[in-house]
Structure formats: structure tokens, C-alpha cells
């Protein structure tokens, strides 16, 4: 078949009809995706298709393992930079056969992709040029979907802000609003906040949206941005939601670093709840985690969830009580005075000992002292502070007050 002019000139009633036309011209199965790899049209195919295409059609989105492989292999970075077709060799580990792909552009932004599965043949240079024409012809149809999607996202984000600020507080009303906007509910959820080093640019927002739309680790029910924060409502699926949310957070931060070279992402998530009127509470708790991370740094570097903060949950309340003169800890005062006078590290020794679950060998290794030296220091601590090291209540009180003093010093 030879085409003297553009084989895609003319009107098409739907993107499905257009996908079939591209498939007829190139004699290969075709899929059309939006910029976040959600399937928006696909052609009919003969008996052969590869597992990646089958999985995409069934789930209406490209599997995350396929997206990850295409990033590592370099295909997606190339498609985000070039208007030329990109040849993608097979990636057998994820069931991906040989393909050619081309981006669909709106000005300087990619709004979709056309993927052509090469079935026992290789596209000729002329067919590669036709594929470029197909990308231009698809633009208006994909753009219509893009504009409708953006308008819906604006309405959804407005609803999310109302929930984050308790402007809608009745559970039935919240669920009615979610249903009206076709937003699924889930048995459990938590508000997650990612905080970047500077205010988000439009380009960063696109990159973040891409990651959130393509992740299949946890369902993202809602998300929005605020200055340098990305706020989302995640719905963990297992009976270990804290572990699940922490894994998602670490994966998100790693991908921002690997794919987009964005570092220094802090994150916190609030309590996991099942009642939607508690979205605002979960949001406040997520912000509290971030505030503590800013003050305490490495002390809670690997802690992301409000429920994982332990004693730190109470620090603002305790600090207020302390400032009102509600209590002092004579044991800590004595140790601080002794350290200052003798240039010793008894307070640090006790803190490190408790940090390491009272494991003498680990503590000695961290402090770079002999275990016998550690034993001597602990005895001095007990004598100077008049502290019973066999009484857990006394030890916990001293430990909390040491941490609280550090927290107070960091303002």
C-alpha cells in the first residue's frame, strides 16, 4: 500500500476508529495512551499480541512494572524529549515485544503516546514518517480528552480542599460528593504530604502528577498542591497500612530522584482512618510529622507516619507544660551540671543507651568506647542522678526529658 499524501487526513468519529486506521496503514496492532499511560484507544489485533499489551487492555492502563522498565531502558525519557518515533527493543522480563512509539504533543507538552507493536515485521522509514503524521492527526482528539480531564481535576481539587479544611464535615454529605464526582471510597485512608525544597514549578507538578497517576502501589483517591507541598489521599490495601504507606513514600522519593533529579523530598502521613470526616485530622497529623522532621532531622529520618512518632507525638504539649513550670527533672539537671563541670558525656551516654534499646555492645560501638567504660558511665549516671536503672518508669522519664530538651533547643 502506498500513500501519496497524508493517510490520516479526514475526520474520525472516535479515537478507536483512528487507532484502527493507523493499524490498517501500518499493518500492526496500535494502542493510544494519555500522558500518564492510561489506555484511551486501541485497535483490533490478529491472534498474536504480547502479554504487556494484553495486560494494558484488560486494566486500561500500562502495568507499573512495564513503565518502570521503559524508564530504565530509556524509551520514555526519549519520548518526553523528541517528536521523532522511538524504537523500543523487546523487554522479555515484562512481556514487552518489539515496538515503535511516538509522542503526541500540544505545543511543548506531551499529552499522549501512540504505540505500535511490530508483529513479525519492522516498520519501514516511510511507515515511520506516517507514524509521525498519525501523532499530529491524533492531537485534537486527545486534546479534547485532556481539556475535559483538566476541568474535572479542578472540581475534584476544590472538593479535596473542602475536606482538608473541614468545610464539609458530615460523613453522608462527604460520601455523596465523592460519589457525584465518581471518586471511589476505600475502607481505610491517610493523608500524605510530600514537601519539596522550593515551591513547585509547572514542570515539577507535571512530573509529580505523572508519578502519582502511574503508581500502582496504593490507590491515590485525591491529590492537590500547595506551595511546596503535594497533598494526597492514599488508600492502603493491606492490614499493615503503616508499612505499605512507608514503602510507597520511599518508592516515590526514589523515582523523583532517579527520573527527574529532584532531591530533598520530606514526607509525612497522618493517622489511618475509615471515617471520611477525619480527613482534616489526618492532614493536621501529617503536617505535624513534617514539623517534627524539620526540628529533629536525622533523629526521625526514617519515620513517616504520625502513629510511628511514639513519644514525639506529645512533645508540643509537654513543652508547653514545661514552660509553664509544671515540672522539672532533677536527675537531668544533675547530669547536665556534671557534664558541664567535668566536660563529660553522661547525658549523651544515657540517651544513646536507650536509643539502642539498652544494648550495651551496640551502645559501646556507637560511642566508640569499651563496654567496661560504658558500664562505668552507667554506674556514674545512676549515682549522680540518683536513678534506679532497674526502674523502667524512672528511665523513661529521664529519656523523654533528654529528648524534650533537645527539641526545645532547636526551637
UniProtKB/TrEMBL annotation:
Residues 346-403 form the PucR C-terminal helix-turn-helix domain. PANTHER family: CARBOHYDRATE DIACID REGULATOR, DNA-BINDING TRANSCRIPTIONAL ACTIVATOR ADER. The lineage of its organism: Bacteria, Bacillati, Bacillota, Bacilli, Bacillales. Belongs to the CdaR family. It holds the Pfam family GGDEF_2. It comes from Geobacillus kaustophilus (strain HTA426). Gene3D superfamilies: 3.30.450.40, PucR C-terminal helix-turn-helix domain. This is Hypothetical conserved protein. Residues 170-291 form the CdaR GGDEF-like domain.
